[in-house]
Amino acid sequence: MRNSNKIAAMLLAGGQGSRLKALTRNMAKPVVPFGGKYKIIDFALSNATNSDVKDIGVLTQYKPQLLNEHLGIGAPWDYDRNFGGLRILSPYYTEEGGRWFEGTASAIFENINYLDQVNPEYILILSGDHIYKMDYRKLLDVHKEKGADCTIAVMEVDWDEASRFGIMNTDEDDRIVEFEEKPANPKSNLASMGIYIFNWQVLRKELVEDSKDPNSSNDFGKDIIPKMLNEGLNLYVYKFDGYWKDVGTVRSYWQANLDLIDPENELDIYNDDWRIYTKSLNLPPHRIGNNGELSECLVNEDCVIDGKAENSVLFSSVEIEEGAEVYNSVLLNNVKVKSGVKVYNSVVASDMEISENIGSENDSNVYLVSQEGIEEE
How far apart are alpha carbons 276 and 268 in whole angstroms? Predict the structure, then answer.
């Protein structure tokens, strides 16, 4: 079958993201708004586009409607192709039955027919809920140079954080000699980023065997990777040293949004050589009134600013009335801040009208404001 690029990507985008609380109550984590105009999944999709990956399957599961609407036929990422391009892959039923994806490996196994049709030499496994830029071609180059069966992207994390991750212990040639899932006493601080490249035929064999194991949790980190190590296959790491965040909590989500305001931020969404693409809303420009005051803010389309905002990210159609003040906050689409109100250190969910003060100056808490009330972190 045709596959001139020899690499296909599978993007796991079915995550519930329950630690984001009200932000993911009605949508999957990958489609949560981020950075004023994007969705979280836009970063992995744009990386794939910029890395010249021609075929990408997006695996959905938890509340996929908004995600499917955002993806469409893949046009914003140049994936609306007659051959290849973007395919949405959801759990399905057949005459033999069917099931939800039970783990990360299960999700790929259930779509073996799709991958056999694409017929790649290499398969790139991605997560749809991380904020980062990565040239996957460099990852593939390392994979080829090492003669690897699997190459795992890793990054150094703080030692006191290492026990939260899958940790790779390697030799001097970056070959993985041991994998530890969230170890109490880690031997290294090389944490898996959940980004893998496999030789497809090697992975295919492993997936089929894993599916027949009743004791398997059908997960890459818990089952597939340890099994490949035990079999003596060639597993290596690719060390990544750029910006990467798993926005898994309200505080980390808030901080990652505010990171974008810093002109020294490594992510640099203004770099024309590595753009982040998204679906356009086609809204009118924002307007700043006579008494409007903005300082160190990201401001999206259709905002009306008659009050003050400082060090904040304003999504589309935000209104800050005259006399209102917003500091260190992330206001999602269609938020209105009423006159006289002060908002500090907050993530305000879409369609909220704020008529009371939230937080205070020198407050170290982060507040999530939604229809469910005000939650503190």
Answer: 10
Answer whether residue 1 shows pLDDT above 50: no
Quote the CA–CA distance of 65 and 150 in Å, as a whole number. Answer: 33
pLDDT in tens, 166-193: 999 999 999 999 999 889 999 999 999 9
- Which pLDDT band, with edges at 50, 70 and 90, does 61 fall under? confident
| Local structure of residue 160 (DSSP, 8 states) | G
Enumerate the β-bridge partners of residue 198: 123, 150
Q: Residue with structure tokens 């009335």? A: 321
Q: How many residues does the chain have?
A: 377
| 132 alpha-carbon distance from chain centroid | 8
Q: Which two three-digit tokens encode residue 313?
A: 């990210």
Neighbour-count burial for 316-338, b at 16+ CB within 10 Å, e otherwise: bbbbbbeebbbbbbbbbbbbbbe
Longest dimension (CA), the chain: 69
Enter the tokens of residue 74.
């893949």
For 203, the enclosing helix (H) or strand (E) is helix 200-211
Would you say 200 and 118 are in contact if contact means Cβ atoms under 8 Å apart? no
Alpha carbon 154 to its chain centroid, in Å, reads 16
Q: Which long-range contacts (CB under 8 A, 24 or more apart) does 321-326 make?
A: 322/289, 322/291
Name the residue among 197, 194, 224 with its Cα closest to residue 121. Answer: 197
Could you tell me how far CA 227 lies from the centroid of its own chain?
27
Distance CA 301, CA 296 (A): 16
Question: What region, left, alpha or beta, does residue 9 occupy, with left being phi > 0 and alpha being psi -120 to 50 degrees?
Answer: beta
How far apart are the two ends of the chain, measured CA to CA in Å? 52
Residues 323 and 340 sit within 8 Å (Cβ to Cβ):
yes
Model pTM above 0.90: yes
pLDDT (average), residues 186-212 = 96
**Tell me, what's the pLDDT at 362?**
92
